[in-house]
């Protein structure tokens, strides 16, 4: 990890603990045509409070990796742990944000967030208080009674993030959450996500095709090879926080992006 690492992970500690650990984790799907190797042995750690992004070619297993960490898929071999405990089955201490906000059209902002409480049977009053705190943190105060169709795409994704954080998980997993947004809205959401991360002090694993997005948001960027996916490189992002959008125009930012992009060209593939 870079010596310049700051932000939520720091929290006054010089060496945050390893929260997620993968040791020789593989994934093989069984199909009618035989076994299909999705992930070759993966070994890496994610520290508490760290923001880590994963980039790689389409179909390299990025989303599969996220589902393994969430416990939505079993590993084929190797060891995958969260807080020192093996991950087997869906994890209670994880929140997930997908590319689509997946909001219920007949429920307003507050009730969409509280859906998480109903599914987890959380105490109603405590959950409502927590939801209102998250709404304010996400800049949605005043929109509690609005319905999804009354919100912009970026606002809908903020609701989705609030819902994922309602049960106060240690880890926030994000699978291309801003992929469907226009470029300007996406940049604004990058700023919003950075702010929410700094305030919430969560550990974030982000799947993205956008190299600038990964560099802007992350402490480290993991680069995956073509399928079967493997960790081809890990880049420390030595940029101080909080990061304004203007940082994208600096030589340091350009050098980070160039290093990652050159890696993809070396592989002979580049998504965007």
Q: SSE layout and pairings?
A:
Blueprint: E1 18-31, E2 34-47, E3 51-55, H1 62-70, E4 77-82, E5 85-86, E6 94-97, H2 109-120, H3 124-137, H4 153-165, E7 171-175, H5 183-200, E8 203-207, H6 211-217, E9 220-224, E10 231-236, H7 251-267
Helix pairs in contact: 2-3, 2-4, 6-7
Gross morphology: globular
Main sheet strand line-up: 6-7-8-3-9-10
User: Strand count, sense and closure of the main sheet?
Assistant: 6 strands, mixed
The oligomeric status of these chains comes to single chain
Number of strands: 10
Q: Give the topology string: H per helix, E per strand.
A: EEEHEEEHHHEHEHEEH
Distance between the termini: 27 Å
The CATH class of the largest domain turns out to be Alpha Beta
Structural class category: alpha/beta
Tags for this model:
272 residues; alpha/beta; Rossmann fold; 2 domains; 6-stranded mixed β-sheet; 4-stranded antiparallel β-sheet; 7 helices; 33% helix; 24% strand; globular
């Amino acid at each position: 990890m870079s010596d310049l690492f700051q932000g939520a992970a720091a929290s006054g500690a010089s060496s945050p603990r390893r929260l997620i650990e993968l040791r020789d984790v593989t994934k093989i799907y069984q199909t009618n045509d035989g076994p299909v190797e999705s992930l070759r042995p993966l070994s890496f750690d994610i520290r508490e409070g760290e923001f880590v992004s994963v980039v790689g070619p389409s179909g390299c297993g990025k989303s599969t990796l996220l589902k393994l960490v969430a416990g939505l898929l079993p590993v084929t071999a190797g060891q995958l742990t969260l807080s020192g405990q093996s991950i087997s089955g869906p994890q209670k201490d994880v929140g997930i944000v997908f590319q689509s906000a997946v909001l219920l059209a007949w429920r307003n902002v507050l009730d969409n967030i509280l859906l998480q409480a109903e599914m987890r049977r959380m105490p109603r009053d405590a959950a409502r208080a927590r939801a209102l705190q998250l709404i304010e943190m996400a800049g949605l105060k005043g929109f509690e009674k609005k319905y999804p169709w009354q919100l912009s795409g970026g606002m809908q994704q903020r609701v989705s993030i609030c819902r994922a954080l309602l049960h106060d998980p240690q880890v926030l997993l994000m699978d291309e959450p801003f992929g469907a947004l226009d470029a300007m809205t996406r940049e604004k959401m990058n700023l919003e996500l950075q702010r929410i991360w700094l305030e919430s002090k969560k550990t974030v694993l982000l799947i993205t095709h956008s190299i600038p997005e990964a560099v802007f948001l992350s402490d480290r960027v993991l680069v995956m090879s073509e399928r079967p996916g493997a960790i081809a490189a890990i880049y420390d992002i030595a940029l101080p926080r909080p990061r304004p959008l203007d940082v994208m125009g600096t030589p340091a930012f350009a050098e980070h992006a160039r290093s990652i992009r050159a890696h993809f060209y070396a592989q002979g593939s580049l998504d965007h």
